[in-house]
Amino acid sequence: MKRVNEQVKRELSKLIRQHLPVEDHGLISVTEVDVSKDLKTANVYVSTVGVAQQTAGLLASLERIRAGLQRELSRNVVMKYTPHLLFKEDRGIERGQHVVEILNALEKGQKT
Known about the structure:
The protein has a 3-stranded mixed β-sheet. Helix 1 packs across helix 4 (66-76). It is α+β, with helices and mostly antiparallel strands. The chain starts with a helix and ends with a helix. The longest helix is centred in the C-terminal third of the chain and has 20 residues, at 92-111. It has a single domain, classed as 2-Layer Sandwich (GMP Synthetase, Chain A, domain 3), CATH 3.30.300. It has helices at residues 2-19, 22-25, 55-64, 66-76, 92-111; strands at residues 27-35, 41-49, 84-89.
């Protein structure tokens, strides 16, 4: 399943870059793909960098082109079923940035 997840992630990353311009949604990153054991659904976790507060618009855009992405995915990745893609926001990068900010604030507080 790990290889399936990685292959789907790699292909979706490439397809999303082709279909959604960076100017509209910022740099889009597919951070994780979790394909179900029966291969019928896949949770696709995405994050964006560069355009503040655009995640809702990104998810709507991804949902709009979902059928095309699934069709192209079925051509590029040979599997018994092509999974139904469910796009979800990954807030890991945002949480990481928040932790770095807290650590920087603590460090500045100790120096004064």
